[in-house]
Amino acid sequence: MKDKRFEFETVIKDTVNLCNMDKEKKAIMNLVLDGKKILLFGRRNTGKTSLVESFVIPQWLKKNKSGLYAQVDLYGVRSLTHISQRIALGFSEGFSRAFRAKSAFQSLIKLIASLRPRMTLDNDGISRIELSTSEGKPPHFKDIFQKINEIHLNDIPALIVMDEFQDIAGIEEAEGLLRDSLQRLAATIPVIILGSKKHLLSKVFSVPKAPLYNWGESIEITPIEYLEYTTFMKERGLNIDLDVSTYLQDCMKRIPEPINIVCYNLLKKAGVKKISLKMVDGNINEIVQNRRGRPQEFLSTLTYSQARFLEVLGKHGVIKKITAKQVQREARLTSPGILKIVAHFEDMGVIYKGDMGYEIADPFLELHLRRYGI
Ligand SMILES: Nc1ncnc2c1ncn2[C@@H]1O[C@H](COP(=O)(O)OP(=O)(O)OP(=O)(O)O)[C@@H](O)[C@H]1O
Ligand SMILES: [Mg+2]
User: Fold this and answer.
1) Closest-lying ligand to the alpha carbon of 222?
2) pTM here?
3) Which of 12, 190, 260, 365 could form a disulfide linkage to 32, CB 3.0–4.6 angstroms apart?
């Protein structure tokens, strides 16, 4: 039997530890096997990367044994060169894997010759491909994408995954150039774009004048059903009823990672004992206390106005109208001042705008602010 655990602070590699997501799995697989372009989005820590790594890629490889997949992480990119570097890295790893699989070795090596790949051998004799010139510069991503087209048309199926895509927003020219590359890709190459900041993604994808307007099909990760998560908890040995589990999930804003952290700690403490509401509260308090270094460190990087605004937001939980007179009064900020801070925090993923209004994204940060202030 596979090891059933509550995982956190990691990408889940085995679907056994991924709670549900059946709807998303089905939707995404149908599109991927059909060579479609997909935009997978959902707030932070809701399992986007885990879903792709533990399920989508392995399933795709099963059907495309000699296939080549490239996974590009655009987290924190700041310039066009930076983007090219990350794309080159993602594809280097993809080529290395494909070479190791050997089935496509001969045709691949010819095809990518113009990218000047350098082959190195690890200690254990495993070959690695690097796509960088002797000066260490990566090839331009335009050339890499073009190459993928050629490879794909030479009967080596390709899959492209681009994680944290929203981080290209605001980099001059990046959106246009990437759009160009993406649009030139063969219609049958599946591409999955992942992102967590809806407002930034929509800058790139949804507004009519945005460069990637109408690109691909969107799939949004929605909260897992209370009952599904309760079953997941029980399968991992937690003795918990639906009402207590629902309370726990709500305290953690229904975000899987903090839910798993609380469950992991509860299981360690309570063993087979029935979990009560009081135990949930006690446990969350303890976690907030034990982890207080992290928010403290984060708060120390903020200006006083930013920190004070977060404190006010934390106290309210959710605020519908962020520039309301009362908020201005409590935060001692003007309406433009608030809007500037909100835009900054939203870009950083610190605050999140949901259907009910604005809130602090991380439940532990919110609880920390309520308990310890700034
Ligand atoms: N369906 C799920 N079942 C169980 N745990 C989950 C699930 N989805 C997310 N998690 C939890 O979230 C953590 C982070 O997952 P992952 O990195 O895949 O999320 P993400 O959506 O890609 O986050 P980010 O937006 O930060 O990139 C995991 O370690 C796990 O604790
Ligand atoms: Mg991710």
Assistant:
1) 1
2) 0.92
3) 190
